[in-house]
């Protein structure tokens, strides 16, 4: 059964709301924004065809109040709701409420969201579907002597995880058997407080894995394909910072194996829509199922760029009941893409959110460059939400070209007002381990232990010295213009020497 979608309400804000609206416009679908008090004149509101106010600034009084969102959709006469990421995107109750209101929820079925949202049930589904998992177990009774025996059998270090967890909450690493009981109780208590669900389980702890995830697309007719992997190891405090596709260590054989595994758990769970299957990959390239994200992810554009697929357009087609337009054999990778998440955070102050007005904002462009921005010049960055302001996504023929173009694009980016992570990304693009593709989830901790990423390498030190010298000379001769306003002293590299020539012949043309 197919049902044409004419109007979509986007239950989100910022760059992802804008991203979904662009797909709507490409498809001739009317887009409806929702907004809180703080977002009255936000970019996503200006980009929409229509907009509805849904409450005060705090998200638990606006973007998270699903009755308000559904009422707006009904009032607008929308056919469907796209939840973006975060907010209500993985809320099974919300997906069900959409269904009950006669609205298409652009995502998996409520039952699938519920099943995979429970990390323990997801793990058990993965086992049933034949996916490798790290040695581990469900725990019935924490005081059971068998539990201690089980831990010994698995071997330390052991990781205690919360069934309701995600994003690292309710996790405990245990290296010493003596600390085991206390860790179990602590994790259970924390999980109970955070999620109202104190169930925990244990797994063998991998100390220095990569985080690699597989993108999947499944239609309502039982067809399911994968679109390769994204390498997401560069993260801090469970927040991804840089992602890329493909992974520098991937082989076609391993991609095929991991992709098939992802498709298998999708089929086992009755998956419909776009989704992501996360894996940990060990130094010896063994991979282990981690969890399934039942939403469009922040980092989806790197997959779009290397596979030439519009994932949001595919989500919409799937929601309309269309059959997948691609067979697995149609999916071919081309080149390399890197995403830098541009956060309004101050790397020099421990990545504290930095709010205020964007007094200057100029985004890069040129070959291979895509910027998914949620803001424009003079936008206000509110304190209430995730501080992501844009994603810089860059394509190259190979990883090396993608890195060089990313560096160039980062140089071109201009932001004044709030502090951003742009400088931080510039440092990583010059990092030798990064350039070698030598990554793990501990990359940032190991490379920048005190957040002191502003360690100039020889090349940058030289550039800075030359720029400082030129600066002095330029000031004396009064022939230099600063090419843009920027707050960082490192941007002295961006001074331009302007040669003014007195005796230029006029060619008669007007300028
Ligand atoms: C692990 C692990 C090592 N061993 N499981 C972190 C969040 C949650 N989704 C699962 N996580 C991990 N599970 C085992 N058996 C290490 C992590 C982990 C991690 C995983 C992906 C990306 C970043 C991470 C940062 C710290 C820990």
SSE arrangement:
Elements: E1 7-10, H1 14-27, E2 30-36, H2 43-47, E3 50-55, H3 66-76, E4 80-82, H4 92-100, E5 104-105, H5 110-117, H6 119-128, E6 136-138, H7 145-154, E7 158-162, E8 172-174, H8 180-195, E9 200-204, E10 210-218, E11 224-236, E12 239-245, H9 252-268, E13 273-281, E14 287-293, H10 300-307, H11 311-319, E15 336-343, E16 345-346, E17 352-353, E18 356-357, E19 360-362, E20 369-373, E21 380-381, E22 388-396, H12 399-412, E23 414-416, H13 422-430, H14 432-436, H15 443-447, H16 458-477, E24 480-482, E25 495-497
Helix pairs in contact: 4-5, 12-13
This protein binds ligand MV4.
Report on this model:
By secondary structure, the protein is an alpha+beta fold. It is built from 16 helices and 25 strands. The chain is globular. The N and C termini lie far apart (61 Å). The model is unreliable at 477-493 (pLDDT under 50). Bound molecules: ligand MV4. Ligand MV4 binds next to strand 9 and strand 14.
Tell me briefly what this model is.
By secondary structure, the protein is an alpha+beta fold. Helices cover 33% and strands 24% of the residues.
Shape summary: globular
Radius of gyration: 25 Å
Total DSSP E strands? 25
- Assign the structural class, choosing from mainly alpha, mainly beta, alpha/beta, alpha+beta, or little secondary structure: alpha+beta
Sequence stretches where pLDDT stays below 50 over 5 or more residues: 477-493
What is the beta-strand fraction?
15-25%
Q: How many helices does DSSP assign?
A: 16
Looking across the biggest beta sheet, what order are the strands in? 14-13-10-11-12-15-22-20
Q: Helicity range of the residues?
A: 25-40%
Mean pLDDT rating? 91
Largest sheet report? 8 strands, antiparallel
C-alpha end-to-end distance: 61 Å
């Amino acid at each position: 059964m197919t049902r044409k979608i004419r109007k979509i309400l986007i239950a989100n804000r910022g760059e992802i709301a804008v991203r979904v609206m662009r797909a709507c416009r490409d498809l001739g679908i009317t887009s409806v924004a929702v907004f809180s008090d703080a977002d009255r004149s936000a970019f996503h509101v200006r980009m929409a065809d229509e907009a509805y106010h849904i409450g005060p600034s705090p998200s638990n009084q606006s973007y998270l109040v699903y009755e308000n969102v559904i009422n707006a959709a009904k009032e607008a006469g929308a056919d469907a709701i796209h939840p973006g990421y975060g907010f209500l995107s993985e809320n099974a109750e919300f997906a069900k409420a959409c269904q009950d209101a006669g609205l298409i929820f652009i995502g998996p079925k409520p039952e699938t969201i519920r099943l995979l949202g429970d990390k323990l049930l997801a793990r058990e589904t993965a086992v049933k579907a034949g996916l490798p998992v790290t040695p581990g177990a469900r725990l019935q009774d924490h005081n059971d002597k068998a539990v201690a025996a089980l831990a010994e059998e698995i071997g330390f270090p052991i990781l205690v995880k919360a069934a309701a967890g995600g994003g690292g909450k309710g996790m405990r690493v245990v290296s010493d058997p003596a600390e085991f009981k206390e860790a179990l109780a602590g994790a259970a208590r924390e999980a109970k407080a955070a999620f109202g669900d104190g169930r925990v389980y244990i797994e063998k702890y991998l100390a220095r894995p990569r985080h690699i995830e597989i993108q999947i697309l499944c239609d309502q007719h039982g067809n399911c394909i994968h679109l390769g992997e994204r390498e997401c190891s560069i993260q801090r405090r469970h927040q991804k910072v840089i992602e890329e596709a493909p992974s520098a260590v991937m082989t076609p054989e391993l991609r095929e194996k991991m992709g098939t595994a992802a498709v298998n758990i999708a089929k086992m769970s009755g998956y419909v829509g776009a989704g992501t299957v996360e894996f940990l990959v060990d130094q010896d390239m063994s991979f282990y199922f981690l969890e399934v994200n039942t939403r469009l992810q922040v980092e989806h554009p790197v997959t779009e760029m290397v596979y030439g697929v519009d994932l949001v357009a595919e989500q919409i087609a799937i929601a309309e009941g269309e059959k997948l337009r691609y067979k697995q054999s149609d999916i071919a990778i081309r080149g390399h893409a890197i995403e830098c998440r541009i956060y309004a955070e101050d790397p020099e102050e421990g990545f504290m959110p930095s709010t205020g007005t964007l007094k200057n904002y100029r985004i890069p462009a040129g070959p291979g460059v895509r910027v998914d921005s949620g803001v424009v010049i003079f936008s206000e960055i509110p304190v209430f939400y995730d501080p992501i302001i844009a994603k810089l996504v860059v394509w190259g023929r190979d990883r090396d070209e993608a890195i060089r173009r990313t560096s160039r694009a980062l140089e071109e980016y201009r932001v004044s007002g709030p502090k951003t992570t742009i400088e931080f990304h510039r440092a990583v693009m010059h990092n030798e381990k990064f350039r070698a593709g030598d990554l793990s989830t501990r990359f940032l901790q190991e490379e920048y232990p005190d957040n002191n990423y502003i360690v100039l390498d020889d090349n940058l030190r030289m550039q800075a010295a030359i720029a400082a010298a030129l600066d002095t000379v330029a000031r004396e001769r009064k022939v230099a213009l600063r090419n843009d306003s920027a707050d960082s002293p490192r941007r002295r590299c961006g001074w331009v020497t302007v040669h003014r020539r007195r005796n230029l012949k006029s060619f008669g043309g007007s300028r």
